[in-house]
């Protein structure tokens, strides 16, 4: 009898609620398809509290919907840093992976983009990426802010 109770009485892990988060990425004013968008928690739940940090890939219109548990469900409430990688499918992969069309401007060390997810729908204003001509180490400032 006791064994049955232990099996049936097991506590389920707490599921942290998530809220819809969507947006659009534009490069030089045009929709950017295939950009990988990641939310790195700064004051929000992180792995292992959630199965993965929120992520998305932009569609042909540059639109995206963040995923934490299931496709497009959103992100947990809290603060995040927005990190982006745009794989260049026309370039051969390097030892460290695919080449980034954004040249590292929006990686974890250089991005200036932040987000606070609140209860309810969260629409990120369009992320406008200017034409990038060189990596951050070669050019000073942040694209679009010089």
Number of strands: 11
Helix content: under 10%
The oligomerization state is single chain
Low-confidence stretches: none
Q: Give the class-level CATH name.
A: Mainly Beta
Order of helices and strands: HEEEEEEEEEEE
Main β sheet profile: 5 strands, mixed
Class from secondary-structure proportions? mainly beta
First-residue to last-residue Cα separation: 71 Å
- Strand portion, in percent? 25-35%
CATH topology: Immunoglobulin-like
Please state the overall shape, judged from the principal axes of the Cα atoms.
elongated
Count of helical stretches: 1
CATH superfamily: Immunoglobulins
Rounded radius of gyration (Å)? 19 Å
- CATH architecture assignment name: Sandwich
The averaged pLDDT comes out at 87
Organism: Pirellula staleyi (strain ATCC 27377 / DSM 6068 / ICPB 4128)
Protein name: Carboxypeptidase regulatory-like domain-containing protein
Provide keyphrases for this structure.
four-stranded antiparallel beta sheet, five-stranded mixed beta sheet, about 150 residues, 11 strands, 1 helix, Carboxypeptidase regulatory-like domain-containing protein
